[in-house]
Design goal:
The structure is a homodimer of 250-residue chains. By secondary structure, the first copy, chain A, is an all-alpha fold. The first copy, chain A, contains 12 helices and no strands. In chain A, helix 2 packs antiparallel against helix 11, helix 4 runs antiparallel to helix 6 and helix 9 packs across helix 12. Chain A is globular, with a radius of gyration of 18 Å. Chain A starts with 7 loop residues before the first helix and ends in a 9-residue tail after the last helix. About 2% of the residues of chain A have low confidence. At the A-B interface, helix 4 and helix 5 of A face helix 4 and helix 5 of B. Chains A, B: One of its GO terms (molecular function) is pyrroloquinoline-quinone synthase activity.
Chain lengths: 250, 250
């Protein structure tokens, strides 16, 4: 069964009567949860414990393309943001992923996840398993954050509103079904459980405060829908590259 | 007397015989010091104690446009850099200028310099004194770092090689000649005395390591020449806006 997925054109209609209150805008944004990639068939099967080790490895190796792009995406937002106070909080996302002298960072944690799954570090870092559809989707996201107004780019990050639910479910699923993966390898998911809510709270604050006109509110919802498309498109490409009966690597 | 200034086209010639050694490349880069804005007549007069309070204020208010753009410039470089290890060091520049919860940051220090000179914080932040030539030069610099290969953008930062000399001279000149400015207001210059060498060392490492072909080496020298043009052009615009006999604000 393939989950159907409304494209952003169909899913971002306005009420046609003018701007809504900040809280109603948050509601509109939250409605995009139905289009989050947690609903994708590949994720549904992942969390039901139905994926093979090869499929898990294929997902981890491809998803690394996205992980590795996150600091560039956040730096692009920082580079377009003229407000020091916003930058001072946003920059934390970059160190969370790149790490510092004293902290590991999300990219390193993802590499450890890959190693726990049986992937070599080198085969993740050189991108040999990354399929074109994943690469194109990730680059589309980075380009969006470089070229669109920074508040829209902030709005596109709001898939983090939906992430903790998926993270918690995934963590439980991995610990239960994929016992061949060392539990220490799952730190990335654990870290995101508290990082994502902190990050989405800041992003939501910005969007609520600055998206006051119909056009701004529509643009924020469209940005989030676009981001859902990015994540969904990645899952489509991964799903196609690692079907149920195909060994990995090909 | 107006100091003459060779443009980047005239000043970046190669030896025409192939790539040079990393150390010889550093020499080529250091030769650009003759075109650094410390040689501009306005700076020469500043350091000789010849500027009026109005001229000093005009310079401080206009130079704030540049200070404020630095984190966006560095975030643009970060956003174009695919290498985590480089990003982990480069990000320090952003917190140095934006500050953190526990540190003031260079932008704040510059605002304090302005206040020590008799400027209101608001008139610096709203940019009312910034002349078009300064704004255009600063935006050209940010655009350069957004759109050029990140190693070239790193090379353009190498005016920091020449900065400590100017900073030390300026600090001494301010303490000696402009005694109407509170010494606490000069912290920005003091901080840059140790930040600039640390930053330029990292940038030089990157450029030495990665600019190995003639084309790469020429591009690095051209990037630095471009940056000298940016700084020089700002001084030209400021010099014209605040001539010796004109009161400030206009």
């Amino acid at each position: 069964m393939t989950t159907t997925h409304a494209t952003s054109n169909e899913a971002t209609g306005t009420n046609g009567t003018g701007p809504v209150s900040p809280d109603a805008l948050v509601e509109r944004l939250r409605e995009q949860a139905t289009r989050y990639h947690s609903e994708h068939d590949f994720h549904v099967r992942m969390n039901a414990g139905e994926l093979s080790p090869d499929q898990i490895r294929g997902w981890v190796a491809n998803r690394f393309c996205y992980q590795e792009a996150i600091p560039r995406k956040d730096a692009a937002i920082l580079g377009n943001c003229p407000e020091r106070e916003v930058r001072r909080r946003w920059i934390r996302r970059i160190t969370d992923h790149d790490g510092t002298e004293s902290t590991e960072g999300g990219i390193e944690a993802w590499l450890r996840l890959g190693e726990a799954c049986g992937l070599e570090r080198a085969e993740m870092e050189d991108g040999r398993h990354i399929v074109p559809g994943v690469r194109f989707a990730v680059e589309a996201y980075v380009t969006f954050t470089r070229t669109r107004p920074w508040v829209e780019a902030v709005a596109s990050s709001l898939t983090e509103l939906f992430a903790p639910g998926l993270m918690a479910e995934r963590l439980a699923a991995f610990e239960r079904h994929y016992t061949w993966i060392d539990r220490d390898g799952l730190d990335y998911f654990r870290n995101r459980l508290h990082q994502a809510p902190r990050d989405s709270e800041h992003a939501l604050e910005i969007v609520k405060e600055r998206c006051r006109t119909v056009e701004q509110q529509d643009a924020a919802v469209a940005a989030l829908a676009f981001k859902n498309d990015v994540l969904w498109s990645m899952m489509d490409a991964i799903d196609r590259a690692y079907p149920d009966d195909r060994a990995y690597p090909a």
